[in-house]
Amino acid sequence: MRFAEELGTSHGRRLRRGVLDDGRAVFVKSGPASEVLVSEAAGLRWLGEVAAVPEVIEAEPDRLVLAWVREERPDRAAAERFGRMLARMHRAGGRAVRGSVARVHRGVADGQRGRP
Questions:
Q1: How far, in Å, CA of 115 to CA of 80, rounded?
Q2: Which of 100-110 are b and which e, b meaning 16 or more Cβ less than 10 Å from the residue's Cβ?
Q3: Which residue in 49, 48, 65 sits closest to 57, CA to CA?
Q4: CA–CA separation, 77 vs 95, rounded Å?
Q5: Torsion-angle region of 103 (φ positive above 0: left; ψ -120 to 50: alpha; else: beta)
Q6: pLDDT by residue (tens digit) across 75-111?
Q7: ∠47-48-50 over CA atoms, to 5°?
Q8: What whole-number distance in Å separates Cα of residue 39 and Cα of residue 53?
Q9: Which of 32, 30, 35 is nearest to 7 (CA)?
Q10: Do the beta carbons of residue 5 and residue 30 sit within 8 Å?
Q11: How many Å apart are CA 58 and CA 38, to the nearest integer?
């Protein structure tokens, strides 16, 4: 993978746009090893069963690689698609994933960087 653009940082993690050897553009989040990035990937995989989310390409304790999402101009049709997708997500539930992600992110908010 080669990196094309630095996007800044968020919650102590480095954000970059990269390009895989096969030419696909990706979003890469990296930083100190913890369960936060793996938990985020689990949440995205679950959401992907009911909604359009970026494909998880790699999930490690210190790095998360997602398919790059191209920006689109918002319009009425996009807003309607988003509303339907959001409703599907709410109906789908997901207590186990939501609980795990919530526990990890509470730790981050408490300064524990994702440690239980």
A1: 38
A2: bbeebbebeee
A3: 65
A4: 30
A5: alpha
A6: 999 899 889 988 888 887 765 455 555 555 555 444 4
A7: 75
A8: 15
A9: 30
A10: no
A11: 9
pLDDT (tens digit, 9 = 90+) per residue, 42-66? 888 888 888 888 999 999 999 999 9
**What letter represents residue 13's amino acid?**
R
Give CA separation, 48 vs 3, 12, 13, 15, 89, in Å. Answer: 26, 26, 23, 22, 9
Q: How many CB atoms lie within 10 A of CB 74?
A: 9
Position 85, amino acid: M
